[in-house]
Specification:
The protein has 20 helices and 18 strands. By secondary structure, the protein is α/β, with parallel strands linked by helices. It has an eight-stranded parallel barrel, surrounded by seven helices. A three-stranded antiparallel β-sheet has the order 12-14-13, with no helix packed on it.
Length: about 500
């Protein structure tokens, strides 16, 4: 249950996209009192660029413990504040985003480098979320070009202003997500500054700004523990990085002392990564069934609230192509392809016809009845057929109750699978999840990626500006992304590169 403090309710009216709606202004809580008011979540779905939209949050909540906290995708504060179209495509309360019964607790994340823009954007959504988060962790090139995310970490004065402005002027708390710096001491100093500026929840991603793509490597939990041990207990803190299995959640909390654990790509490849059930079928759902559930959420919970049906009911000559294009840019429709590539990542290399079909599919290629999901439904039908045939040929082993017996086996030499530590007291098992079930993606560590040729060092030629300045180029990702070039699992790690 989502708990809200209402000890001092005050009637007011909220404006969003031109519509007025009554809301109850809440007493602004801080620190641990705020954390407890939203149910003290221990599992958190990370903010991911164009990946943690409402439809995905709804799917993730179904397969996660109650009170799992979800973040919106990273939103651009200036565009959100000044563009009604961008705002409508990105965040649509109260029936969709921030719905009090289906999308809470939820934090809205913004990237920004201007306190005025950030405050204006945050005020547009503060009545429909539990907190507003400042992105200080995005390591991508677009963040460097736009001067936001992790590329603000040298500008502490600006960060103080951004967080402080929200802390002093918003009705809901402000939170922040950072990456570690080059030393534990510097990382702690940075974290203290962010908290002192007014952040009520601090999320620490245990990787540096340079760790991304094939250069991602493992997150360093020792940095997170050092920060946790040296901050007051009143400071609520989440950890991010290295969450592949449900067992990693408890292990991370035990090793670092944080209040909750965030997952990015682990969640994208298996939205049931936080599932604690003893039913293996729930922890590693079949990808045809999770695909069915995902498309049904879009069809039944998202599409009815979009103006697509009304637009298509008009005479063709009276339909506005501009309005149709705006609908197709809705944040719940644009990520479908990417989500299916990740959900089905172990099937696609085996069935290139499905991979090609997903690659060609688009919501703009509507079916005979104007169905924007028509081509994706065709892809799902192929997946369902493939898995049905596989299970007919190779039925799964079941237990006495007729349920899937699960992926874990005793450690034996030469057996396929991944070594995982489970149970209390802990013991190691060999885990081999069938290819037709949702499971994490493993990425080679930088040293292995270089040996395999997936990661290459750029040669700095003499007499170039880079050589003269002494700048050393970072290793570059030479692959085609998470769906390309599977690596050996024994020398691999997860990649939270999409997480901001």
């Amino acid at each position: 249950m989502h708990v809200v403090d209402a000890s001092a309710p005050e009637a007011t009216t909220a404006q969003h996209n031109g519509a007025s709606e009554p809301v109850t202004k809440r007493r602004k809580l801080q620190g641990r009192e705020f954390y407890e008011s939203i149910g003290s979540p221990r599992t958190i779905v990370a903010p991911m660029v164009e990946q943690s939209e409402l439809a995905w949050r709804l799917l993730s909540r179904r397969h996660s413990p109650p009170n799992t906290l979800c973040y919106t995708p990273m939103l651009h504060s200036r565009l959100f504040a000044n563009s009604p179209i961008y705002r409508t495509q990105s965040f649509q309360p109260p029936h969709l985003d921030g719905n009090i019964t289906s999308d809470r607790p939820v934090f809205v994340q913004f990237c920004s480098n201007d306190p005025k823009d950030l405050l204006a954007a945050a005020k547009e959504c503060q009545d429909h979320c539990d907190a507003v988060d400042l992105n200080l962790g995005c390591p991508q090139g677009i963040a460097k070009k736009g001067h936001y995310g992790a590329f603000l970490q040298e500008h502490w004065g600006l960060i103080r202003s951004l967080i402080g402005t929200l802390h002093e002027n918003l009705d809901v708390p402000v939170t922040a997500k950072i990456r570690i710096l080059e030393t534990k001491e510097k990382s702690l100093e940075y974290a203290k500054m962010v908290v002192d500026a007014g952040a009520q929840v601090l999320t620490v991603h245990g990787r540096t700004r340079e760790q991304k793509g094939h250069n991602t490597g493992l997150a360093d939990w020792s940095y997170i523990k050092y920060i946790r041990d040296n901050l007051p207990r009143e400071v609520v803190m989440f950890a991010n990085g290295n969450i592949l299995w449900q067992e990693d959640v408890e292990r991370c909390i035990a090793e670092t002392g944080v209040d909750g654990v965030m997952s990015a790509e682990g969640n994208l490849y298996n939205p049931a990564v936080f599932e604690t059930s003893s039913d293996w079928d729930k922890r590693f759902p079949r990808m045809d069934m999770i695909g069915r559930e995902y498309l049904d959420i879009i069809r039944h919970q998202i599409l009815p609230h979009l103006p697509l049906t009304e637009l298509l009911s008009r005479e063709p000559s009276k339909r506005s192509r501009k309005l149709l294009n705006e609908v197709f840019k809705d944040s719940n429709l644009t990520p479908i392809k990417s989500h299916l590539f990740k959900l089905w990542h172990t099937l696609l290399p085996r069935h290139l016809e499905v991979r090609n079909a997903v690659g060609r599919a688009s919501t703009r290629h509507m079916g005979p009845d104007g169905d924007p999901l028509f081509e994706y439904e065709q892809c799902l039908a192929q997946v369902e057929k493939i898995i049905a045939e596989e299970l007919e040929r190779n039925p799964e082993e079941v237990d006495a109750e007729g349920r899937w017996a699960g992926p874990d086996r005793e450690l034996e030499e030469g057996e396929e699978g991944i070594e995982v530590e489970v149970g209390n007291p802990p013991r190691k098992v060999r885990r081999c999840v069938p290819w037709y079930r949702c499971q994490p993606y493993y990425r080679a560590l930088p040293g292995i990626a270089k040996a395999n040729g997936a990661l290459k060092e750029k040669v700095v030629r003499e007499n170039t500006p880079a050589a003269k300045s002494g700048v050393v180029r970072k290793a570059e990702d030479d692959g085609d992304g998470p769906e390309h070039k599977k690596m050996k699992v024994d020398d691999s790690c997860d990649d939270d590169g999409k997480c901001c």
